[in-house]
């Protein structure tokens, strides 16, 4: 395995790399910067643990070459097309497919040029850091991306993509990834994961149990999905008990294929702890497609508690990603479908919302529930105090819009004094942009070191502790939180 | 035009100035400070663009001398009397008029002394920076303001105010103002603006269309105002269509007099997108003074969408200033009327609130809607994600209580990673304190440069980009957002 | 009185102390750090004013030796056992009593070892700073606490506790405490305070009137408490007028024993200003145990306004601590009772909530109401604007989870620009951990100086002002806010 985040990746293959600032994201003060530098040196080259993300398992099972720079970097990345849309570029002109199959821009070079012409928009954003890092460290690109260098960089990246060293499995190794979890529907047969294991990546690329489509009564295909869940688990999912048993069996199926965690994307953090007969009636109402919005919400809340109970039984770590208003623009959803950059965070409440679940299982030994929020105001007010007392609760890293230098620093400053670091879960890259994985871990490691350096510099911790904490934030806490 | 924010204003007239720290508001770290200094040097002397504020157009149409230091600095400035009230000084003792015409302090020197005695209260506030800058740079005052220097400084400022160089138009030129928009009632005949054009300031001092008094059913004179709007536009504002047409015509009237923008001060960000017949019924209910609080709120929300539609038609930039609980103290309102420093920000929600309007027009090419908030928690959670994807949405600068060094820095740190700078609108001084205009732009420019310097110092952007961005934040983005 | 926060406490008794970083919590930049150092030097040794806290008056009336290190540091401190619980340690294993009297760990050395083994959990938290400071400065401990030093440090602290110099009154003197207020039930006979006065500490240790148990209709013993309040004041508390008169008399009883303030711990900031007959009916409903949750909440809100009215009469400062969801875990409450670390902050609203009370008395000359919040989002949005205009309103220092380096800095940065420092109340240690008092004041003074230094460093205030402000933050504003 090559060095990843600290040293250059392609140097031995392609000669000297362009200059990324070796002190990037470190504190400006010289003494504090030196401390950060020393801390970072000890963890920069640690392997990458990616316990939550959205890589496509087909990449690793099929190991096909990525098609071209535009479809690798631009077309699938909502961080990127979102920003271009905000300045008047149409999604179709970036090659984003239409829901009705109407034609969109097909030429990857044209798409890439549009991206490059607008690259200044990303100044000051983490996307800029990720792209620069990926182009420089993964592809050996030496020039800054812009309208004038678009073609040259396109050609350079395209050429590399045709080489065997740029196939997914080769990159996986070069990136130094030790563990990567994908996110998979409960109904997925995990055949890609079977082939990944056959290819010898078993235990390094694993699935995650994400049952939303069979849990959310407002999902368009809820009834069908529940029926299908019954079929593939040989359970009568027409009954509440059978439905729960089906989840149990399906979790076991995932666990046998390496899964260590489940994941739940809900609009709110609401949980319920209903009497079984009440829950059963609610389930039947949902299944009959008769549930009001309130009932659907209650059912999702009940299912979080049920999933937590199953985690007590089977030891899987439970992740909750809550608080996104999905598909804010009706027109975009109609034209291009879901997940088109129009997901907007909303104010989220945890203290009352999590209480039913915490009353049910919050003190269970060994249970691990990781909470992610898009509402930073809850970090110091609600989540750090909750995670700082409930043994089952762990703070997920800053998510989505907050997976950034300022966001990570605010997270540590707002949670560290109440929850410490030992009730947090290290870093998630949470990405579907494969080539940004080293960049994202690099940013996170640097900002964590910058934060630790600030604590050392003003006498809050000793240097020997900071070394330990840097390692724990980078790998140990991840392994503990995800049972790796 | 003299140099404004970087160099001294009165030096050539009055000799050496007192020492304002030339590095004020720059980062403490020496290297980062040097970067900020270099960036600031390139934009310090750019002309001032003031696209939103509350200057009295009569100043420029009549060009009369300002009466005295107290009535220039203290009596009309809610930032100042608010703070003195908080420490037990009565509004009447500061010369603030009573609603019932009862006597209040008339002697400007006495008012000024009261202000000076309490000047320490402003330590650490932006008001302190603005006043110090105005006294030093505009009036050549060399001593710090305080009880012991009150009379001396009063005399010095009073003497200057009698000179022709301190008349409004002369100061306007000395301040280097290239563009200044006032805020004007839809019912205003803009006669001052006509005289301003005759005086040759046309296109440099322009009105803004602010129709709140004829849009808010809870405004005491809503019915009269709607009727008057009908009269002056020759429309039947008793009908919904006529009412909308009256707004269209009145916007055109403003536009002909140089207006490039409208402005809307609402208690919440609520918008509606009602069917025309539902909207019409709601309008009639409001006009009949029969609207419930909920109906009045819905009507205001509908009118935001209507105004956005008209902006699509006529190209005027739309501004929304939402989230102030006005006139919090009943007693103060009874004694002294509105806008007496008792306006308090409230929690504000944008994601659901703006959705009806954004569904209606949010993807319209060319539409520009600038949103201002008094709830900083919405910056990273709601507004930056919204502005970072909707092409029509632009983030207004930090407003009112947040138009300050810490507030501006927080704004950039909380929005810059998601919306970048290109979905923001540069700076507004938003002031009725004329002599503070150079100071406010100076503060904003310095803090923006401090922020950019921090990005350069830790390798997030290159210096050549920072130079570009400094200029864009200072002028280019303002011109683009306001169609100047 | 010995030097307290700046210099070593035990040096003259026990020889050289371990090294706490003399520059701890100062800014990293060398120039700013030097400014902070100079400011701190002028206030480090000022006496301690502790106008709100939870010291047990029995300590000072009885002056018995503290029993052992575990029962001094660990068992009563919810900051400490909360964090250990979050990592799976049971409260019973830390010696925390069971509600049913079931056995818990009794051996102090065992408890201390468990604490020491988990001491790394506190890295980056204020608890770590407080404990380190107390061990080093109060007990002369030279080694870092950890599993390997647990016994040695236990023995050292235990040995000291048996010495007369470590009795409460001796420590009180050594800590340089000039004024300390305890928090006492309205029903308390204050006999400990009588004995404290006899011991010559009168005026230095005083009670605070905390009537919650006789004000909150949802307190289990509300009816009994109201009856008892009637008995001890010789009032008919079965009537509304008699009930209010009983409070008046009881406040006088406290005032005669040195109390300068009242304190009110409510779930929300809700206030009411009801007509007397409506209030009377509400009181009777509550007394009859017939109140709905809404009515109970309204009654608490009405009582805040009544207490404020009494403060206008008798001059006592009123404190409001609002926004904690108490006893979040039912199971912990059942097993161990109240106040077991499971109190979690909730979102809090002040602008509408305080309005009835502010309408009633907010402009009263001389009235002082100090507001504390656990919702940091209200600082810049609601509380600083309110305190920055209402003469009666004062901002309490950062409370509980926010009484920390980052919390204090955020408080100043978020309130200082709108409310200045003169509408704030200096520091509260608010602790029941006696030996942490010097540490907590040390942290607060250092962070305030760090903040002031940042204002000097970037030219926002002059150094002569910063010296003044440092002193005001440390003592003058405390005295003014609490009428000391």
TrEMBL record, chains A, B, C:
SUPFAM superfamilies to which the protein is assigned, alphabetical: Metallo-dependent hydrolases
GO MF, any single term: glucuronate isomerase activity
Catalytic activity: D-glucuronate = D-fructuronate
Pfam families tied to this protein: UxaC (PF02614)
Assigned EC number: 5.3.1.12
Any single biological process term in GO: D-galacturonate catabolic process
Positions in coiled-coil regions: none
The protein's enzyme class: isomerase
Entry superkingdom: Bacteria
Keywords: Isomerase
Pathway(s): Carbohydrate metabolism; pentose and glucuronate interconversion
Family membership noted in the UniProt record: Belongs to the metallo-dependent hydrolases superfamily. Uronate isomerase family.
Record's protein name: Uronate isomerase
């Amino acid at each position: 395995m090559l060095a990843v985040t600290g040293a250059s990746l392609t140097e031995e293959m392609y000669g000297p790399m362009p200059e990324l600032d070796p002190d990037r994201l470190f504190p400006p003060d010289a003494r504090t910067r030196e401390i950060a530098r020393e801390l970072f040196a000890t963890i920069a080259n640690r392997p990458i643990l990616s316990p939550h993300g959205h890589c496509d398992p087909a990449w690793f099972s099929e190991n096909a070459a990525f098609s071209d720079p535009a479809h690798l970097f631009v077309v699938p990345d909502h961080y990127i097309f979102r920003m271009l849309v905000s300045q008047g570029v149409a999604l179709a002109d970036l090659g984003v497919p239409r829901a009705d199959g109407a034609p969109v821009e097909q030429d990857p070079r044209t798409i890439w040029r549009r991206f490059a012409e607008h690259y200044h928009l990303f100044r000051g954003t983490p996307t800029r850091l990720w792209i620069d890092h990926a182009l420089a460290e993964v592809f050996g690109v030496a020039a800054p991306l812009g309208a004038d260098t678009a073609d040259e960089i396109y050609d350079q990246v395209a050429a590399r993509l045709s080489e065997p060293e740029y196939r997914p499995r080769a990159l996986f190794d070069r990136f130094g990834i030790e563990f990567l979890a994908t996110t998979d529907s409960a109904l997925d047969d995990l055949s890609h994961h079977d082939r990944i294991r056959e290819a010898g990546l078993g235990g390094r690329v694993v699935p995650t149990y994400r049952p939303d489509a069979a849990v959310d009564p407002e999902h368009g295909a809820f009834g069908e999905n529940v029926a299908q869940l019954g079929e593939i688990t040989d359970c009568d999912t027409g009954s509440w008990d059978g439905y729960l048993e089906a989840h149990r069996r399906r979790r076991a199926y995932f666990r046998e294929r390496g899964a260590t965690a489940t994941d739940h994307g809900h609009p709110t953090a609401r949980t319920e702890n209903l009497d079984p007969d009440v829950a059963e009636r609610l389930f039947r109402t949902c299944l009959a497609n008769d549930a009001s919005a309130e009932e659907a919400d209650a059912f999702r809340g009940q299912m979080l508690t049920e999933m937590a109970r199953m985690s007590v039984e089977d030891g899987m770590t439970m992740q909750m990603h809550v608080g996104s208003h999905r598909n804010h623009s009706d027109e975009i959803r109609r034209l291009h479908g879901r997940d088109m950059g129009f997901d907007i965070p909303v104010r989220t409440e945890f203290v009352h919302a999590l209480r039913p679940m915490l009353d049910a299982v919050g003190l269970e030994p060994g249970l691990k529930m990781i909470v992610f929020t898009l509402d930073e105001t809850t970090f110091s007010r609600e989540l750090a105090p909750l995670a700082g007392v409930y043994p089952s609760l762990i703070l997920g890293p800053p998510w989505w819009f907050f997976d950034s230098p300022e966001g990570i620093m605010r997270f540590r400053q707002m949670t560290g004094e109440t929850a410490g670091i030992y009730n947090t879960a290290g870093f998630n890259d949470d990405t579907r942009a494969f080539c940004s994985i080293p960049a994202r871990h690099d940013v996170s490691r640097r900002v964590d070191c910058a934060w630790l350096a600030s604590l050392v510099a003003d006498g809050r911790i000793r240097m020997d502790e900071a070394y330990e904490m840097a390692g724990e934030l980078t790998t140990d806490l991840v392994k503990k939180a995800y049972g790796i």
